[in-house]
Amino acid sequence: MSTSPSNEVEANRQPDHEINPQFIERWSPRSFSDQDVPEDVLLCLLEAARWAPSGNNNQPWRFIIARTPEHLTAFHSFIHPSNRVWCEKAPVLALAISHTLTPRGTENASHAFDTGTAWGYLALEANNQGLITHAMGGFDRDLARQTLNIPNDYAIHAVIAIGYRGPVDALPENLREREVPSSRNEVSTFTYFGKFE
C-alpha cells in the first residue's frame, strides 16, 4: 500500500484533514493496459468486498465477472460506445448488482447502499494491489439483464473496469486531458449538524 501520495495525486488532491493516503490515491483512470490480472489478485479484491458492512448482515451485493474473451464480448454488447472506446482494453469487467429482497423475502431497503459500500472496499483494495478501477453507469441495463440472465429481483448498478494502468497517449485525444485525479467538494458542503440546512 502507498505510504504517501504520488506526485500526480498530490498535484490535484489535498485533503483538509489527515487521512490514510489510500483514500486520495484511489481515482478512476480510463487508460488500461491489456496486462492480465492474475486470479489470485482478483480474488483479493472480492475478498475485500466480502467484508463490507450490510444491514442485518444480508450482504446483498453480487459481482458478475468477465475475464475471458467470450465473457468480455458479451459485456461489450451492452456498454455504451463512449465507454467502450476506453474500457475494451480492460482485462476484467465486473457488473455490480444487488438482491432487492432479504432472505425472508421482504424488501431490503439498504441493498443499494450496502452494495455501494462493497464496491468501495473493492476499489480501495484494487489500489492497494497496484490496480486501477473505473465504475461506469453508461450501459444498457435492460440488455445487461437479458444478456447475463439476471433475475428481476436484482437491481443493476454499475459496470466496473479493473486492470493495470496504461499510458495516457493510448486514449483518444478528447479523453487525455481528463486523465488526472479529480478534486472533491469540501466537507462543509455535504455535512449538516442537527438538521438539514
Task: Provide an overview of this structure.
This protein is an alpha+beta fold and 197 residues long. The chain has a domain at 35-170: NADH Oxidase, CATH 3.40.109.10. It contains 8 helices and 4 strands. A 4-stranded antiparallel sheet has the order 1-2-4-3, sandwiched between helices. The chain is globular and about 50 Å long. The mean pLDDT is 95.
Q: Average pLDDT value?
A: 95
Assembly status: single chain
Number of strands: 4
Report how far the terminal alpha carbons are from each other. 38 Å
- What's the CATH class of one domain, please? Alpha Beta
What characteristics describe this protein?
single chain, 197 residues, alpha+beta, NADH Oxidase, four-stranded antiparallel β-sheet, 8 helices, 15% strand, globular
Summarize the structure.
The chain is α+β, with helices and mostly antiparallel strands and 197 residues long. The chain is built from eight helices and four strands; from the N terminus they run αααβααβαβαβα. The mean pLDDT is 95.
What is the topological layout?
Layout: H1 7-12, H2 22-25, H3 39-50, E1 61-66, H4 69-76, H5 81-87, E2 92-99, H6 111-128, E3 132-136, H7 141-148, E4 154-163, H8 173-176
Antiparallel strand pairs: 1-2, 2-4, 3-4
Helix pairs in contact: 3-6
Region (Disordered): 1-20
GO molecular function, one term: oxidoreductase activity
Keywords: Oxidoreductase
